[in-house]
Amino acid sequence: MHQVARADIDWKALREDFPILRQQIRGHPLIYFDNAATSQKPRRVLDALRHYYEHENANVHRGLHELSLRATEAYENARQRVASYLGAASADEIVFTRGTTESINLVAQAWGGKFLRDGDVILLTEMEHHSNLVPWQLLAEGTGARLRFVPVRDDGSLALEQLPSLLTPEVKLFAFTHISNSLGTINPVAELCRKARAVGALSLVDAAQSAGHLPINVRELGCDFLAFSGHKMCAPTGIGALYGRAEILDSLPPWHGGGEMIVSVTLEKSAFKKAPHRFEAGTPNIAGAIGLAAAIDYIEGIGRPAIFEHDAHLAGYAAERLAELPGMRMLGPSGQRGALVGFVMDAAHPHDLTTFADQYGLAMRGGHHCNQPLMRRFGVTGTTRASFYFYNTKAEIDRMIEILRAAVRFFS
Questions:
Q1: Residues 192-213: pLDDT tens digits?
Q2: Which of 12, 23, 77, 16 is nearest to 43 (CA)?
Q3: Catalytic residue selected from 193, 223, 234, 370
Q4: Residue 60: which of 288, 375, 320 has the closest Cα?
Q5: CA–CA separation, 210 vs 400, rounded Å?
Q6: Quick check: is 193 catalytic?
Q7: Rounded to whole angstroms, how far apart are CA atoms 127 and 179?
Q8: Measured distance CA(117)–CA(110) in Å, rounded
């Protein structure tokens, strides 16, 4: 059974913080169930962006005038805010990036380019998003390293009983998702990090689907790297972060070259700043970092445990209601799951189903969700995905069921 959501938070009132949710689509109230792709932004974040551009807009670190000092303070305060949000030991362990994809590519190229050798192994899982697969494929091609994969069971969980034969001393990095963006599976991150450490491997956590939904403490998890995107947790697009343990970041060479990341430059050679600034060449996304800090403040004002409870309640309720529909196949765990449900219906292809739903103001996503190997594992070309956040309601799920019933009648 699904969990019971907390009654001491006025979730309906929180919806008023999101101006975009008030609109109608094709004459119907917007139901936004595409939160796994990107979340909506509260007024607090929009106001923070506007305030920066109207009152503090200047480049950071290099200027000595008042606006630059203000912008630099806000930018570095945002770094500290992210560090606190993740439980990092220091703000120096936080590198601002464009998001999860760029963070993983940074590790693949900076860490992998320096430390990986022919014959080394990178361990992944069959449920990885392309962002946590393609960078390692490229790295393996360039270094001679090999990829291994933890299989996914029929119920959407990882076949962890196979880890002893997969997570061997040849493995230099174990990279895996926290919450599957197609299945909703919540992986046992701390356990996986501990097992990686036991064989001398580093661990990388893709927290794109978890950072805005549940509490994360990188020191308690024991991970070496963790990546997330701001736009999936109420922040602007184009901003995210990479957490890396200080001693590891300090051992890595620069990734991009340019301004901001240098101490001195001659025509022949350059000396570089310490982490994290050595990884942030050029003018950063200053407004994005400030917006991310505002989003964190907003989320923490609600409380991540409460958000997780609310999201789990919605996902469980959606799974129960979807099971009522004819020709329904849901992917992922039957028990607790992340804030999404992926499904296939006999009535229509996922693309046709999501197009039909859009005519009634229901925004879902149909396709392979950047999970093509996982889709093949389950014998489908794609799924329809409904993904939720704290501003969604059970009434919206009930409306989704009505629309899907209409789709069954229409396509039949």
A1: 999 999 999 999 999 999 999 9
A2: 16
A3: 370
A4: 288
A5: 24
A6: no
A7: 10
A8: 13
What domains appear along the chain, each with residue ranges and CATH number? 11-32+304-411 (3.90.1150.10), 46-301 (3.40.640.10)
Residue showing tokens 């901001």 = 260
Nearest to 388 by CA among 338, 322, 348: 338
Tokens at 91, concatenated: 């703000």
What is the per-residue burial (b if ≥16 Cβ within 10 Å, else e) of 8-35? Answer: ebebeebbebbeeeeeeeeeeebbbbbb
Q: Hunting for tokens 């305030």 — which residue is that?
A: 51
Q: Cite the beta strand spans of 118-266 per DSSP E.
A: 121-125, 146-150, 171-177, 202-206, 225-229, 240-244, 262-265
Q: DSSP letters along 352-388, please?
A: HHHHHHHTTTEE-EEE-TT-HHHHHHTT-S-EEEEE-
Which pTM does this prediction carry?
0.96
Q: What is the pLDDT of residues 132-154, one digit of tens each?
A: 999 999 999 999 999 999 999 99
What is the rounded CA–CA span in Å between residue 216 and residue 205? 11
20 closest CA partner among 50, 42, 45? 42
Half-sphere exposure at residue 200, Cβ-oriented, CA atoms within 13 angstroms: 7
Question: Contact at 8 Å (CB) between 202 and 224?
Answer: yes
What is the rounded CA–CA span in Å between residue 53 and residue 355?
A: 37
SS3 content of the chain, % helix, strand, coil (to 5): 45, 20, 40
Contact 404, 352 (CB under 8 A): no
**How far is C-alpha 74 from the chain's CA centre?**
24
Residues 367, 369, 373, 378, CA torsion sign: negative
| 137, two tokens | 């494929």
Does residue 240 contact residue 99 with C-beta atoms inside 8 Å?
Answer: yes
The DSSP call for residue 280 is -
| Cβ-contact 179, 213 below 8 angstroms | yes
How do residues 337-388 score in pLDDT, each as one tens digit?
A: 999 999 999 999 999 999 999 999 999 999 999 999 999 999 999 999 999 9
Six token digits for residue 141: 């091609």
E strand or H helix at 404, and its extent?
A: helix 394-411
Chain centroid, CA 130 distance in Å: 12
Taking the C-alpha atoms of residue 80 and residue 296, their distance in angstroms, rounded to an integer, is 11
